[in-house]
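Sequence only, no structure available. Ideas?
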Amino acid sequence: MKNKFDRTVNCLVDHKKYGLVDGVFLGDLDGPLKALIRQDFPKATNDDFICSEHLVHYRLLKMDQMIAKDYRQNNRLNRKLTRVMEKDAYQMVDVREQLENSLTFGQKVADAVAHFGGSWPFIISFISVMVLWILFNVFHWFGFKFDPYPFILLNLFLSMVAAIQAPLIMMSQNRSAEYDRMESRNDYHVNLKSEEEIRVLHSKIDHMIQQDQPNMLQIQKIQTEMLGSIETQVSELRRLQSMLEQNVVNHKTTVKKRNNENRHE
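Reply:
I predicted one. Tokens follow.
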């Protein structure tokens, strides 16, 4: 009985006869590889046969296309990330240093007054001056009396201090508000640039997960199919070798038997 592997078919590419073990039918191939072969042979059907030698060429071509596509996508993402990293539309600045370098003498005075006016040394010293003022004018120490009760001069002095200190404190508060606005604006630009970089990195990671890994698995699958095809061919060669050796042994046995018969005659 004739083995099914002994059947020969014509290859779609070179039209030579090959055994079934030396190739596959197009219907047994996956869609992308089949489409790649049909680019060169548009009239090919699922019943057409392609030998392993030419099938390896198309499998390697498919892997090259997948790798080239991944390289193009990775290069595009790398260029985009480089442009984002080199983008200098806005440079991050040290707001505090920039603001301090732009201070005028009056603004420095206002900040110093506001800083001292909101501290415990100012409160303690101011209370001490008021207490001494009252004691001097009540008890006439050293015969010194310049503002008798109800301390009109002291009230005038306190009103003047409040009238002068309030605008200076407001100037310092305005400067603090300006600093907060500059800091907020700088933070906004920093966050905007960081978000753009993160988005590009996220796109690259998505590409690696959604395309690179499946492509690597597909390449591994193709390599496994190629190894399986080689293994099948090696097994068939071993089978043919065994058959050939058996035929040789049978032939030698037959020849030896004939020689013995001829010798007896």
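The first helix runs from residue 31 to 40.
Hope that gets you unstuck.
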